[in-house]
Write a structure and sequence with these properties.
Structural class: alpha+beta
Strand content: 35-45%
Distance between the termini: 8 Å
Helix content: 10-25%
Largest sheet: 3 strands, antiparallel
Radius of gyration: 11 Å
Number of helices: 2
Shape: globular
Number of strands: 3
Order of helices and strands: EHHEE
């Protein structure tokens, strides 16, 4: 089971963001530690993505 959701953001879908290393994604999103898990999901065929930040279990 996944951890509790801390934050959900939307962003312009970018393959570059999806390919960035985890540490850089955390910095960009303002999370500087390993207690969060970042899911990046493009919404359908739109140009938007959901970024779901969850607490790790």
């Amino acid at each position: 089971m996944a951890g509790k959701i801390k934050e959900i953001k939307s962003a312009h879908a970018s393959e570059r963001f999806a390919d960035l290393p985890k540490k850089i994604k955390q910095e960009l999103l303002g999370h500087h530690n390993d207690d969060v898990e970042i899911q990046y999901q493009v919404v359908g065929s739109t140009h938007y993505a959901l970024i779901i930040i969850r607490e790790k279990e």
